[in-house]
Structures are given as structure tokens and as C-alpha cells.
Amino acid sequence: MQQDVDNSRPRHDQRLREAAARPRITRSVVITLVVVTALIGGLAVFQLLIKPAMIKGFLAKAVPPLATISTEVARSEDWVGKLPSVGSLTAVQSIDVTSQIAGVVAGIGFDSGQDVAAGAKLVTLDSAVEQADLANNKAALQQAELDLKRQNTLSTRAYASESVQQAAQAKRDSATALVQRTTALIAQKSIVAPFAGRLGIRKIDLGQYVAPGSAMVTLQALDPIRVDFPVPEQDISKLAIGQKIEVSVDSFPGQIFKGEIESLDARVSVDTRGLLVRARLNNPDKKLLPGMFANVNILADAATARVTVPRTAVTYSLFGDNVYIVKPGAQPEQGGQPAGQVPAQTSQTPGQAQAPGDVVERKFVRVGEARGDRVAILEGVAAGDQVVTSGQLKLQNGARVKVDNSAPLTPQSVRPKI
After folding, report:
1. Range 340-346 average pLDDT
2. Which whole number is the average pLDDT over 391-398?
């Protein structure tokens, strides 16, 4: 019993020592946690509050570099009101030269692409059989005329009845009709140009058998020439017979062909809601050919003054078309002026470098008709305003800029088609 008490005492003392040491370990952990928490909190305050404020202050004090742009002065131009359209050129007269009857080609009297006059002989078909029939029919006609003459003589002397004389006359008339029919068949085998024009590519050769209706060559009357084009339903009231038009074609860039409206269709297409219009153009040089694609402008109104800028000055977007205008002096108000308000005029001339501190103002505009490399501005820009023509992608409203017109954008000789 005494031995058990002696053995349990060391264990009891060990528990007492462990119990005494346990509070000191807990205090160390608490102190460590407090220190770590303070460090993390201080770092968070620095990252979330102090550092952003420092960066904002640095950025506020930093001066951004000037954006280099090129400009051009908006100008006023007299533009005649035009209704644009696209169409196709057609010949006033156009046919495929064919034969009414079958036959073998015995002669060709033209070359491909040749200009011919009305009545010019183009193709001759073999007519040997018809010529023989014609000779036979002429002989029969001659005999019938002799018989009729003899019967007329006998009838006047009362030696022949009237019925015999009438039969002889009918026989003569029948022979005459046969001669005329054979002559017409021979004429059909000689094919001539029904009107003056230009021939196309020859499609036959000597000795070739030609069936009735087979196309041998095309014939086009080129002067004058027509252009057919549609006009939207809402513009029909602006059309009139004799109205002037201007036509351009891709084959002759820079050339304008003038004409006038010849006729208007009697109905509006239910598919396109457009009215087909036909105009006539003079084509003395025969440059224009049927089938060419034509850009048509109908001269609808008198000349009016329009403010125009280069196409590159306008930025098109879903939120509205806009233009950047160079403004000397103070910052413009955010959001820009309302469309249509006339901005202050700038004293600089095109190409003159402006002093640092000049800014750009974004103006929302209403865009009108575009012609060539310029576009009309109906609202938002006044004549004399300096508009930015290149460098818009790096701009925003109020950005400071430097104008450099030493290498302005130059339009392409032929604009790409979209």
C-alpha cells in the first residue's frame, strides 16, 4: 500500500508541472497572433487606402503626353441635291441575228465586233434548190400568161367560153404566187442587219448547217444607250420625265456621262418597293456597253451650301456619329455642346502647329450625303472649324493634342468597294 502511494506521487508532481507551464504557452500564442493581425491589418490599410491615394496623387500631378493628330478645316461647298442609285446599261435595240429557215452557210459578210449599217448583208445561206424552183416557176408563169392571152383573144371573138378564160386566169395567178413564194424563200436565205449597230462575236462558220432560230451573232445599237435603275418608293415624287442624270462606270473612272430620264415604270415592285426608271445617254464614242454596272445620280434639287469634312474625320458608332474639333484655350465642358450649336472659331490655319494646351472637343453630328472623299455635315460642325482627320483612336473628350499636318492622309485614286 505504501509502495503504491510512493509510485503515484511522481506522476502527480508531473501533472502539476504541466499544468503550471500550460498558461505560459497560451500567452505566447496570443501575443504572436496579435502581432500577425496588426501586420496584416496595416498592410491591408496600405494597399486599400494609402497606396491608391498615393497613385491618384501621382497621376494627378503627372502631365500626359500630347496626342499628335492631323486636322483640316471644314468648308462650305455648293452641292446639287442628288438621288443615288445603281443600275445596268442596256442597248436601245439589241437582237440575236438568226435565220427563219434552215440552211447551210454559203457566205459570211462581217467580222466579229464590226460596226454595220442598216441593211448590210451579214450571212448568205445556200439557195441552189430555191433558185431552181424559181426558174421552174417562172417558166410555168410564162406559159400561163401565154395561155391566158390566147384565151382572152378567143373570148373576144366568141370562140371560147367565159369559164375557160377564167380557168386560164386562175392558172396564171397561181403561177405568179409560186414565183413570189420562191423569191421570198430565197430572200430569207440572205440575212441582213435590220438596224445600224455593232456586231458581237461570230458564232458560225462557212459550210455550217444552221437550224431555224439559231443565234449567229448579236447586234447592239450603242448610240444612244439606256440605263435602267430602281428608285425607292419615297423618292418617286422627286422624279420627272426629262430630268437630268449623271452616270459613272468602273471601266472609266473619273468620267461622268450625262443623260435624262426617258420613262418611268407603271408600277412599284412589291419585292423591293422601288420604281424602275429608264434614262437615255448619248454615247458617240461607244465607250458604254450593254450590261455594264452603272452608278447613277439623279439631279433632284438646286445647288445649296453644305458644310463638308473629309470622310476620315467622322467616327461612326452605335451611340451616334461624332467628330473631334480642335479648341484652343480652356477645357470644354464634359459631354460637349448640343448638336447644331456653333462652336467658337479657331484662329489657327490648316497645317499650323498649335501651342501645347490645345484640346479636342467631341461633337455628335448628323451626317448627310457623301460624295467622293467628303461628307456633308447637317448639324454639329460649322464652316471654319478645325476637325481631326487622323489620330482619333487615341483621343477622348478634352484630350490635349498637338497638330502635325506635315504628312496628311491622302485619298486613294480608286476607293475600295464595300
Report:
1. 39
2. 85
